């Protein structure tokens, strides 16, 4: 087995390597004067089972291109099997045609990874489950929920809990959390006005006097979370916390969180985390989960047990 890391999230790659007990392989990534990416793998990988750890987070175009070039370099160096490990899958929100003359970019990225030479994918919490079907190669789709639920079960401030999905698309995730936590379930109906503006319309379920946990796969501008939180507060929620797998929050998102009823954000290190300027944030590591998945794929073992809490 060989592990390589791109420039997207070296700290997570190092934590994964430490868990596995294998050093990260040597790779030189540089830029030509005109900005083109150059990659050189500086050790022999012929016949190796290669895992390339690279979330395609901000800046997505740089990180995706870097990953594609690393895959091509590995293929031409005769690696036996190449498995990109994607803690976060960029462009995942563009998973369908919801307007005329728009692309399905999540499918395009899947095609690019396959064409570059990927033999298998390990990914975590796709924005939409159907993205697995965009690949014509095996995909091991992991969930951060066991890591987050394990943390939540140790908390005393989350009794009398209701898990809330901030939009209908996240109902399946919210239902899984509610089952694992033995909590109630509710859903917020929303209407998206623009890419950054969301309006919460109604709540289905009882949240009056209850502690609320909003769950979602990712947040950037925090529009969905904060508009849902305001509506839940109006409906009598006692406290509101949010659990999000991928936190790519922008300056606008930080400002919205500060001005919202959300008291704490619980997230993971699937992407590099920025300081949220004093907003209460708990960051849980998914390094052990990803490392265990890599070991099981390498040893041809089942990864199903990783979904259990």
What this model shows, in words?
- α2 runs parallel beside α3 (about 105-115) and α4 packs parallel to α5.
- Helices cover about 30% and strands about 25% of the residues.
- It has eight helices and 14 strands.
- The model has no long low-confidence stretch (mean pLDDT about 95).
- The chain has about 300 residues and is an alpha/beta fold.
- α3 links the parallel β5 (about 80-85) and β6.
- The strands form three sheets. A seven-stranded mixed sheet has the order 10-9-8-11-12-13-14, sandwiched between helices. A five-stranded parallel sheet has the order 1-4-5-6-7, with helices on both faces. A two-stranded antiparallel sheet has the order 2-3.
Outline the fold blueprint:
Blueprint: E1 2-5, H1 10-20, E2 27-31, E3 37-41, E4 49-53, H2 60-76, E5 81-86, H3 105-116, E6 121-124, E7 139-142, H4 145-153, E8 161-165, H5 171-181, E9 184-192, E10 198-204, E11 211-219, H6 223-234, E12 239-247, H7 251-258, E13 264-268, E14 281-284, H8 287-298
Short description:
The protein has 309 residues and is α/β, with parallel strands linked by helices. It has eight helices and 14 strands.
Distance between the termini: 28 Å
- The mean pLDDT is 94
Biggest sheet strand line-up: 10-9-8-11-12-13-14
Structural class computed from helices and strand pairing: alpha/beta
SSE string, helices as H and strands as E: EHEEEHEHEEHEHEEEHEHEEH
Assess the beta-strand content as a share of residues. Answer: 25-35%
Please provide the count of β strands. 14
Number of helical segments with 4 or more residues: 8
Computed over alpha carbons, the radius of gyration is 20 Å
**Biggest sheet, open or closed, and with what strands and sense?**
7 strands, mixed
> Regions with pLDDT < 50 over 5+ consecutive residues?
none
The outline comes out as globular
- Helix fraction by DSSP (H/I, runs of at least 4): 25-40%
Oligomer: single chain
